[in-house]
Predict the structure.
Amino acid sequence: MTADGWTSDPVSFQASASTIAGQIPGGVADYFWAEAYERRELEHLLLQSFRTWGYADVITPAFEYADTLSGRGGRELRQEMCRFLDRDGSMLALRVDMTIPVARLVGTRLHDAPLPQRFCYAGNVFRDVEPRAGQQREFWQAGVELVGSATPDADAEILALTVRALEMAGLADFRLVVGQIQYFDGLINALQLSPAARDQLMQAIDRNSEAELEAFLAATPLPSRQRRALVELPRLSGQNIADILLRAERLCLNERMRAAVVTLRAICHALDAFGVLDRISLDLTEIHNLGYYTGITFEVLAPGVGYRIASGGRYDDLVGTFGPSLPAVGVAFGLERLLLARRARTTALSAKPRPLPPDILASTSNSPEAMAVVEQGRRLGLRIAVDLDHRHGAELSAAARALGISATLDWSAGGVQIARIEDGTERLEQIAPAHVVAALAQLASENQPVAPAHQETATA
């Protein structure tokens, strides 16, 4: 054993290396076959949804200088960063979210571009956390950032876009829980607490613990108006938005709290115009903060799912840490969590993963005419695999069944046949070569997109 703890015995080193050969670290996963397809399709669907709202694609590096990330995020993000040394000794870190890199890009290179700027993205992010359901050390986010507008309409656009994107992704039952950090910060400022008392109150609110709040109130002397505001704060949540805002307004202790209520009222008015207000709940105890939020914050919750599916908020000071100050608001969707939420309302995961089968297995006999038809079928959107063993007839159909393929295209000297394989039965159709493309077009029109069968993820 050397002084630094490493063994100098090559036999021991080889034995140790062999025990991890082919394994992957905890908190990361292999995705393959149907699940890999499902993840890519969801990513594509979300990006397409974002683009229809006028958001343009952005791609940022998977790692940056550690100071760039740690200096902008809160304590939680700093603790969860995955750091490593560059060749020149610089400390680097894998990105912990997508918002900070986009803010860096805008602040350093795009701050003089016309405003507002709208960006959308999808990519992997990394957190050094204990792996659990819906949270790996490497996970995927898709989201948007709207930079350059401080209006309530910008906040409403992000909230409405979130609703529409989730609906398009196939999630029917969900709710956006919206908070306002300015309201809570205004309350904290009015209380003029000591650092220790402030931490105690923040913990009680963050945990939504009535017992801890009561303990704080018992130990902290406060004027009656301030005490009443704290007692009533946990009740400022729910779907009766007009009533909550009215009561929140009556509890205001300073202009900062009043301004927060005015902003929330304007946001909700805009959301009503979008037709999504029924998806919104208010919760003025919602203080989830990654270290850079300055206004509204929100999270998406769904019945039966014990974690947020998406979250976001306003961050008016972040871009200014890189360049000229610009207001901004955004949202990030957790792809793994969204997939789990969709599965929770459908079927249980399959015990045995299977590939997503092609639509057609084609035997072409290496005919140029047949290969041209196959290519035209692919342009129609059909997934066509060519049989490399040149099987025909019953052998081709048997191969298709084994792979879970529901149709065959059999091009041989005897003519062209299309077989439909359903529930163990086979329907054959003899087709003239000139009419094969039309038959494939008909098949493509019948093949509506279907969510792939779910499967277990291969994890460490």
Remarks:
- The two ends are 29 Å apart (CA to CA).
- The chain has a mean pLDDT of 88.
- The longest strand covers residues 117-126.
